[in-house]
Amino acid sequence: MAQGHSGHRTPQRHQGHTARKRFGQNFLVDQDIIGQIVTAISPKPGEFIVEIGPGLGALTVPLLAACGKLHVVEIDRDLIARLHQTYAPEQVTVHEGDALEFDFSSLPAPLRVVGNLPYNISTPLLFHLADYADRVRDMTFMLQKEVVDRMVAKPGEEAYGRLSVMLQYRFAMASLFDVPGTAFNPPPKVTSAIVYMRPLPAEALGCKNPELMGKIVTAAFGQRRKTLRNTLRPWLELEDFDALGMNPQERGERLAVADFVHIADYIHARAGSSGDRDLGA
Question: Where is the major localization of this protein (predicted)?
Fold first, then answer.
């Protein structure tokens, strides 16, 4: 597992490989932490597991030992060559390229996704993976702790925002434990954390127009200090807030996921009844 956060200036080598800053490479070396992560994943024989960013194999080795076969997604050509040299194709299937562009629907379901998500692409990659949630059993990732805190934050908390709402709409999530920088070589300047994500059943989602909801959430958190009356002006008038039973002077950071679903469904229903197809803003 290659950690995705770099705070170092000079290239450092581990197991003959130079950590590459552009890929955010810091390699997990603490065996106790590795053991905790594998225990959290609890891999079983026959399960279909894909590891994002296997790096030098810190997790690959114990995962493969537990499940017998593994798929990995890796972008670094040197590490790809090392993977091909180390493992037979029937053990590890290497998918070469950027996880941001990888079609996870090409893999059998139900899929278990694990690994490290580089900090510089963590948010777009999480949204990319959310598109495949209906094919996923669960996901266990190492991320910068700050990102994990945002993912699991509750309404009213400082870390609560767009990432919180959109991921909590689709997943049940839990921050499992922190990982100090000393667990890596080279050590990053930030603390990481392990997060567990399990897709919610389709019937639990409920929103009639998730794309519209995404636009509303983005607008609500685009200017955090502004009230809903201002941020949602393209969609809602004062009488609409009365119909919704919401205070127009409230801020987006105080709304629960269900509140955003309620707003989106209201706008969607109103547009449908009026024949207005323009739900964008």
Answer: cytoplasm
Residues comprising the binding site for S-adenosyl-L-methionine? Answer: 26, 28, 53, 74, 98, 116
Q: Which amino acid is at 113?
A: V
Please tell me whether residues 115 and 148 are part of one structural domain: yes
Residue ranges for the known binding site are 26, 28, 53, 74, 98, 116
- Shared-domain flag, residues 162 and 35: yes
> Residue 165: CB partners within 8 Å, gap ≥ 6?
217, 221, 255, 257, 260
In a domain, 131, yes or no: yes
66's CB contacts (< 8 A; 6+ apart) are 38, 43, 44, 45
Q: How many residues does the chain have?
A: 281
Is this structure's pTM higher than 0.70? Answer: yes
Domain residue limits at 270:
210-274
Query: What pLDDT tens digit does each residue of the chain (281 aa) get?
Result: 555 543 333 344 444 434 444 444 578 899 999 999 999 999 999 999 999 999 889 999 999 999 999 999 999 999 999 999 999 999 999 999 999 999 999 999 999 999 988 778 899 999 999 999 999 999 999 999 999 999 999 999 999 999 999 999 999 999 999 999 999 988 888 999 999 999 999 888 889 999 999 999 999 999 888 999 999 999 999 999 999 999 999 999 999 999 999 999 999 999 876 544 446 65
